[in-house]
């Protein structure tokens, strides 16, 4: 009987361990979704008529890196805003899974880099450097902030990376492979990212390049109407394809109906989800305000494969944000306060976060390539299949299939206007 109990205990532990791991991963997925949507809603407030793109993943990784160097209330606020501590084993497993399950396809590339730029006079705690390298693959760069601007650093890093990554081409033409040309990184700003008196900068970059699982044909793109938020209409290059995709119709808490379309990239590890109010009279902001993790979970469970005619505008946008006003509203105040910040795990020199910038850009074209401005006028047969036509403002989320992580998120209010 003791032997039987031992065997039963072993079997139970084998059954419980995977279930516990799955539960922890689901919890991480929920926390990341909450943070992504909270960040989006904070940045989009008061900008209801402008295009918007951001990378919740990049901001979350940067805040996670700050956790490694924080103590006391500064650490508690960073953990409270993200909803987790990066020192927890299951959190590190989630971050590792997010990185390791990508780039499995020839036409998809995701690059995440983390650098610690340190003024030569600053003494950094060895434990912090070790943890940053082990958990975030961070590399240390000696910098002279009085002489080096953000643009110079970005260009230098890009030149170094070109030798190791042939896909990070700086060419401007299209390619037959369907990969997005250009570096894939947010463009460097014209002004320095940091003041001359800076002591350290934690720089996280996330760049993505992916070809569609089924590419749009360039000659099927037409100039078609797109209804703006004020009710007026403009002509935009509208891509088209008939394809089997995952699609669903949903209802928000206010009974407003909306539709979700999912377009996978090669390998299906990542996809772009487009969210469109069903009623043309429903403003996009009314739907944005109601989005929560529950909706994202509903999409994952409720999307069904459907043969559809798909119309999506070609668009390109870029945004730069200063997060100084956003982070306190989300619960991170002490980190930006010179008198309250506690980053003694990084250095004993009284560091605090003086500036927090976020750059992001996104371009969607027929095959993931940078397309020319020419548009072919093509007569298409009318189809009896359902139609998803993004001919008015819509949301988009670039998500990882396995973890649900939101890499990029934004909205298109005017496809032919590039945000600043």
State the secondary-structure class.
alpha+beta
Rg result? 23 Å
The CATH superfamily of the largest domain is known as Antithrombin, subunit I, domain 2
Residues in helix, %: 25-40%
What is the N-to-C order of secondary-structure elements (H for helix, E for strand)? Answer: HEHHHEHEHEEEEEHHEEHEEEE
Shape: elongated
> Which architecture of the largest domain does the CATH hierarchy give at level 2?
2-Layer Sandwich
Mean pLDDT: 75
Terminal CA distance reads 72 Å
Determine the number of helices (DSSP H or I, runs of at least 4 residues).
Answer: 9
Poorly predicted runs: 1-17, 156-192, 368-383
CATH topology of the largest domain: Antithrombin, Chain I, domain 2
How does the major sheet shape up? 9 strands, mixed
Q: In CATH's first tier, which class of the largest domain applies?
A: Alpha Beta
Notes on the structure:
The protein is of the alpha+beta class. The protein is 29% helix and 27% strand. The protein is built from 9 helices and 14 strands. The protein has helices at residues 2-44, 56-69, 72-82, 89-100, 126-136, 150-162, 284-288, 293-302, 326-329; strands spanning 52-54, 108-119, 139-143, 200-210, 222-227, 233-251, 257-264, 270-277, 304-313, 315-322, 357-364, 387-389, 394-400, 406-412. Strands 1, 5, 6, 7, 8, 9, 12, 13 and 14 form a 9-stranded mixed sheet that branches. A 3-stranded mixed sheet has the order 3-2-4, covered by helices on one side. The longest helix has 43 residues, at 2-44. It is elongated, with a radius of gyration of 23 Å. The termini are far apart.
């Amino acid at each position: 009987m003791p032997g039987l109990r031992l065997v039963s205990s072993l079997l139970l532990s084998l059954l419980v361990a995977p279930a516990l791991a799955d539960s922890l991963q689901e919890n991480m997925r929920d926390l990341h979704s909450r943070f992504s949507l909270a960040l989006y809603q904070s940045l989009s407030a008061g900008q209801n008529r402008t295009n918007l793109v951001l990378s919740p993943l990049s901001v979350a990784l940067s805040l996670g890196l700050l956790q490694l160097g924080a103590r006391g209330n500064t650490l508690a606020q960073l953990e409270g805003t993200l909803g987790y501590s990066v020192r927890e084993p299951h959190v590190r497993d989630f971050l590792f899974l997010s990185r390791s399950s990508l780039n499995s396809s020839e036409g998809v590339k995701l690059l995440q880099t983390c650098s610690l730029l340190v003024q030569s006079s600053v003494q950094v705690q060895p434990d912090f450097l070790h943890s940053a390298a082990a958990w975030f693959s961070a590399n240390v760069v000696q910098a002279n902030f009085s002489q080096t601007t953000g643009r110079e650093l970005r260009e230098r890093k890009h030149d170094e990376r070109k030798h190791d990554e042939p896909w990070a081409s700086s060419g401007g033409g299209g390619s037959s492979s369907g990969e997005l040309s250009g570096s894939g990184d947010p463009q460097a700003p014209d002004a320095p990212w940091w003041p001359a008196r800076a002591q350290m900068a934690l720089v996280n970059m996330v760049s993505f390049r992916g070809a569609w699982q089924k590419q749009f044909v360039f000659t099927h793109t037409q100039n078609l109407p797109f209804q703006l938020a004020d009710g007026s209409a403009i002509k935009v290059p509208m891509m088209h394809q008939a394809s089997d995709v995952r699609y669903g119709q949903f209802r928000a808490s206010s009974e407003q109906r909306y539709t979700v379309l999912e377009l996978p990239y090669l390998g299906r590890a990542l996809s772009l989800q487009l969210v469109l109010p069903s009623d043309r009279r429903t403003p996009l902001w009314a739907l944005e305000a109601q989005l929560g993790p529950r909706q994202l979970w509903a999409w994952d469970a409720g999307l069904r494969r459907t043969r559809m005619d798909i119309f999506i505008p070609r668009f390109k946008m870029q945004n730069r944000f200063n997060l100084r006003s956003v982070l306190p509203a989300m619960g991170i105040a002490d980190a930006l306060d010179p008198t309250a910040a506690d980053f003694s795990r990084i250095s004993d020199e009284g560091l605090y976060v003086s500036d927090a910038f976020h750059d992001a850009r996104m371009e969607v074209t027929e095959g993931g390539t940078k397309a020319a401005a020419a548009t072919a006028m093509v007569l298409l047969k009318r189809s009896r299949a359902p139609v998803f036509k993004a001919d008015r403002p819509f949301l988009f989320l670039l998500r990882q299939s396995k973890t649900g992580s939101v890499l990029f998120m934004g909205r298109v209010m005017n496809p032919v206007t590039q945000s600043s």
